[in-house]
Amino acid sequence: MIRRPRRSLPAALVALVVLAACVFVAVSGVQYLLGGRPWLTFDTALDTVHGMTWDGVPVLVAGGVAAVVGLVLLLAAVLPGKPIVLPLAPSGRDETSGATRRSVHGELRQTAASVDGVSSAKVKLRARKLTARVRTGRTVTEGLTGAVSSALETRLDQIAPAKRPRVRVRVKKTRSS
Amino acid sequence: MANLNRPARVNRALLAVLGLVLLAAGAFALVTHFGALRVLDPSSPVVPSLSAPPTWAYYAAIAVAVVLGLLCLRLLAAQAFRRPRPGTWRFESEPERGGTRLNGSVATEPLAGEITAYQGVRSVNATLAGRREDPTLYLTVGTEQGADLGELRERIDEDAVPRLRRALDLDALPVVLEFRLTTKTGARAL
């Protein structure tokens, strides 16, 4: 199972903007019908756009803004985005599994950081590559790369993602020998 | 199969349609502005002079604004409901003599309790989605640090789910499992 972002933020923003416009129009209309002073009268609206021609600057600005906003919304709908849930290897049973990418990332970072001799660790999880950068206070770092990468490999075995990333480890010394 | 990522489909469809409309309108305004497209004369006014609208037009505008505004509220509310919709199932072998209704969340409670007791599991959320003819069991499992997912999957698939499947008298019950690995260690861990 893979799960992609839901595009909740752009959808909510669009809903809010359209909602605000609807409230504005409805309130103005009711105010007019009740004989009050509307926020927006038909005459002021007409005055604003009156005398505006297609070769004027306002059309250029409005058209440009509309095209850019439209393109952004279209890309938000079409681009798949980073997966929220990474698929796990199929089990052969009537089941599909996934694990949230964020939690897998945190787990792998914790795995790298808890290796003996590692003082802090950062990991980068891509589709095909897992890079761990660890810092150590040791002066002799021989074997640390192997230890971290075998810990990560073991953890990946247990998690069993559908696409297993290659593990790369970089060690940085915080003390010079 | 039930929709497992609920507002995503409607969000994508709406954003795509709105984006296309805005992009087309903006592009039309720009090409007319630069005179690349001669459907309209660039020196002609954008809005022809109009007389004041009749009163019914105000009513119509208010009605459209209210309906559109309510739809926007519906879209906003939809963002909050993310889990698949749990169904209520009916068991009616002899409809004239009455039937049984089963709420999906009641049916999954024992299952969630059972899986929570497994080694390495912190929290379980189970939803039985879909109709009785094509159900899907949607499980969110939070695990403790170092939990073996393969082993957990096997126990869930081979012990816990078949028990629920037999209890509900189903031929097949596809499972969708979503793991959240936490870095917390469990109280039971040594």
Automatic annotation (TrEMBL), chain A:
Listed transmembrane segments: 59-79
DUF6286 domain location: 68-172
Superkingdom of origin organism: Bacteria
One Pfam family hit: DUF6286
Organism: Amycolatopsis minnesotensis
InterPro entries listed in its UniProt record: DUF6286
Name of this protein: DUF6286 domain-containing protein
Keywords associated with the record: Membrane, Transmembrane, Transmembrane helix
PROSITE patterns referenced in this protein's UniProt entry, alphabetically: PROKAR_LIPOPROTEIN (PS51257)
From TrEMBL, chain B:
Record field: transmembrane: 56-77
Name this polypeptide is given: Alkaline shock response membrane anchor protein AmaP
Keywords of the record: Membrane, Transmembrane, Transmembrane helix
Native source organism of the sequence: Amycolatopsis minnesotensis
Top-level taxon: Bacteria
